[in-house]
Amino acid sequence: MAYGEKGFVHIATGNKQLLRNAPSSATVITAEEIAAMGATDLDEVMETIPGVHVGRSTNTYPPVYIFRGIFSTYNPQVLMLVNGKPVTDMFTGSRGNLWGGLPLENISRIEVIRGPGSALYGADSYAGTINLVTKTAAELDGTQFGVRAGSFDTWTTWAQSGGNVGPIDVAAYVQIGATNGQNRIISQDYQSSVLDPAFGTNASLAPGSVNLGRESFDAGLDVGYEKWQMRLGVKNRFNMETGAGVSNALDPNGSNDSHRFNADLSWHDPQFTKDWSLSFDARFLDLSEEASLTIYPPGARLPTGTFTAGMIGNPSRWQRQYGLSTTAQYTGFNNHRLRIGAGHDALDLYKIRETKNFTFVGLLPTPLPSVVDVSDTSPYVLPYKRYLNYTYLQDEWTFAQDLALTAGIRYDHYSDFGATTNPRLALVWNVRHDLTAKVMYGTAFRAPSINESASVNNPVAVGNPSLQAETIETLEAGISWQPRQDTQVNLSLFTHRLTDIIRLTTNPVAATGKTYQNTGEQTGNGGELEVTWDATKTLRVSGNYAYQKNIDQATNHDAGYAPHHMLYTRADWRFTPGWQLNGQVNYVADRSRAWGDNRQQTPDYTTVDLTLRTTQAIQGWGFAASARNLFDADVREPSQNGSGITYDLPMPGRTFWLQARYSL
Questions:
Q1: E-strand stretches of 375-463
Q2: Distance between CA 393 and CA 382 in Å, rounded?
Q3: What integer pLDDT is reported at residue 3 of this predicted model?
Q4: Which residues of 386-420 are buried (b: 16+ CB within 10 A; e: fewer)?
Q5: Considering just the CA atoms, what is the radius of gyration of the chain in Å?
Q6: Distance between CA atoms of 91 and 74, rounded to whole angstroms?
Q7: How many whole angstroms separate alpha carbon 464 and alpha carbon 448?
Q8: What 3-state DSSP class applies to 32?
């Protein structure tokens, strides 16, 4: 069974190469695989990646991609690229808090690297890197319409088309959808666990369901002409509900809107002159998030008074990012491929709006008679600009027929917190035709987010302009073994050390609140085992097992909340021509609490998914049906210590969807 170009990866070095020879721990998921497993959202794919688990944060339930046990609330340790370009929200340092899912109909392949990538990609390629490659005109080669409907009144419809207009290649895509979201119950929240008992009120809306409704609009355009390529993308979310609440208190009336527009223009000449290739890229990213939130419900009381209409806060922000870069490759030296790059980014958080019905007196919110606009007087953050200049060098040296050494280094200079330099070194040895061994070393960094470095007027979370970058140092070893023609085995082992971790820390005078500081250190080790077996020409069985253990050096205790053990198995069976049945089982176990959290471990769980689909069009039509969490397991993701959500964050039970496509 074949799944397109699964055996190749691009983001490991910036060049296409065999996955087994890549100087990194990498996984590639193709569009064919995405369809086979019945995944409709990126989160479902990420959960199948060795060493990766998808957790949740409370406000809007955004995914937290936990790579090898490394994560924090906003998940800034993972870099997301779209066609090799970052889509990072400068305020959170991640993909943005108002994520709202990412559909997969226009995704050609997903490339994932576990481990550091800052030597090539710079900031936030720290614990891992995800590259989403969109479909081109050649891949689409025609027009397709689709519709899908499922549980929780979820529906989506899309159209995509690809072809040629004279010498110009054009691919276009549009998708709209909506959902009421899953409705599992939160039995206790911060209001019921902490505030109501403390002040003798009964304001909490718990027990109550999580709130995950939203509407979505996604679109893309890819235009190619000779050496030029332009890509445009839109990702908008409307009326996005608040999950478990912005302050861990249920808020069924709150809503959020997010808007993302990305554009890039590239020129590439693979034979610019003898032994040289040359590329130029320009990128633009426009992001906005608008919120209307009830922080605590009507009737909530604090020592400063009662919030009769609820404690209301409506923070919004707008940002633009511009980037220019150039890359040259030189192959004039025997057995060397040199890659040289440089670039400049300008990041501008240019507009802030905030309205609320409270003000701070010391550390305590104090009720105001009405909602007031504080955008020009005391907003949660001021407009902020950041500039970045960088340069890097990489050498892929094949110094023997079966030995290749990849060495690279990148220098980044930020206008606000200074410079950082990150190297990488990887030795790949093709021991035999069926066995490859790797040893890899690298460092990476995470840039302080604007939230961490510049937040103001909120004494419980004050930004620190003196912050430095978080850093990580990683050593890895791996083997890729093909014991038989129909069997592939991959093993990766790692150890890492995180330093200068940015954490919210109580000030020396506790009454003055908390400030972000470079204060944490963490060590970890583990490994990932992958096996793929083509049992017959029509049956493939695959799976992976991952183990990690991370220790917070300040407490000498488990860092907490990430699973120590993960086991994923899958079978793809083409039981008759034109039809395929996929079954997958996911087991997540041993999620310890962090130091000071005395609750029992988050329960282990096992989920089973089944997907049936056509693999050949029937008079232009294709069909699919899927059952997710077939046996209705009680899946929960850990809530943070002190959140008041005692019994963790509930995930969907059994769900179903049906899908139809029509191709012209």
A1: 384-400, 403-414, 418-432, 435-446
A2: 36
A3: 55
A4: bebebebebbbbbeeeeebbbbbbbebebebbeeb
A5: 25
A6: 10
A7: 9
A8: helix
H or E segment at 585?
strand 579-589
Pairing relationship of beta strands 142-150 and 128-134 according to DSSP bridges: unpaired
- The four Cα atoms 289, 290, 296, 297 give a dihedral, to 10 degrees, of -140
Could you tell me if 525 and 494 are in contact, meaning their C-beta atoms sit under 8 angstroms apart? yes
pLDDT at residue 5 in the model: 59
Q: CA 407, 28, 229, 388 torsion: positive or negative?
A: negative
Distance CA 281, CA 262 (A): 13
**What is the dihedral sign for C-alpha 550, 556, 561, 566?**
positive
Q: Is 62 exposed, middle or buried (0-12, 13-18, 19+ CB in 10 A)?
A: buried
- 223/233 Cα distance (integer angstroms): 12
Q: Mapping DSSP to helix (H, G, I), strand (E, B) and coil, where does residue 370 land? A: strand
Q: CA dihedral defined by 383, 99, 68, 559, rounded to 10 degrees?
A: 70
Strand partners, 338: 330, 395
Bond preceding residue 367 cis, omega within 30 of 0? no
The mean pLDDT values, 10 residues at a time, for the chain of 664 residues are 71 92 96 97 98 97 98 96 97 92 98 97 97 96 97 98 97 98 97 98 98 98 98 98 98 98 98 97 98 98 97 98 98 97 99 97 94 96 98 97 97 98 98 97 98 93 96 98 96 98 92 91 98 97 98 96 99 97 98 96 98 96 98 98 96 98 96
Tokens encoding 349: 């958080």
Ranges assigned E (strand) in 274-363: 276-296, 300-302, 305-307, 311-330, 336-361
The closest of 190, 198, 144, 146 to 171, measured between CA atoms, is: 144
pLDDT at 2: 52
User: What's residue 512's pLDDT?
Assistant: 83
Residue 445, pLDDT score? 98
Closest by Cα among 27, 78, 64, 118 to 492:
27
Number of neighbours of residue 425 by Cβ within 10 angstroms: 15
Distance CA 50, CA 66 (A): 11
Partners of 426 in the β-ladder: 406, 440
> 663 Cβ partners below 8 Å, 6+ apart?
142, 143, 144, 617, 620, 622
Torsion over CA of 432, 435, 439 and 445, rounded to 10 degrees? 130
Q: What is the DSSP letter of 635?
A: -
CATH architecture of 8-663: Beta Barrel (2.40)
**Predicted pLDDT at 562:** 98
Contact criterion met (CB below 8 Å) for 191 and 249:
yes
If we measure between CA atoms, which residue out of 84, 110, 94 comes closest to residue 32?
110
613: nearest Cα among 603, 627, 600:
627
- Cα separation, 326 vs 389, in Å, equals 12
Assign residue 244 a region (left: φ > 0; alpha: ψ between -120 and 50; beta: otherwise).
alpha
State the greatest distance between any 2 C-alpha atoms of the chain, in Å, as a whole number.
79
pTM above 0.70, yes or no: yes
CA dist., res. 510 & res. 502, Å (int)? 19
Burial class (CB in 10 A: 0-12, 13-18, 19+), 608: middle
Tokens matching residue 558: 């488990």
Taking the C-alpha atoms of residue 104 and residue 36, their distance in angstroms, rounded to an integer, is: 12
- Write out the H or E segment, with its range, that includes residue 450: helix 450-454
Beta bridge partners of 425: 407, 441
Determine the straight-line distance between the first and last CA of the chain, rounded to whole angstroms. 26
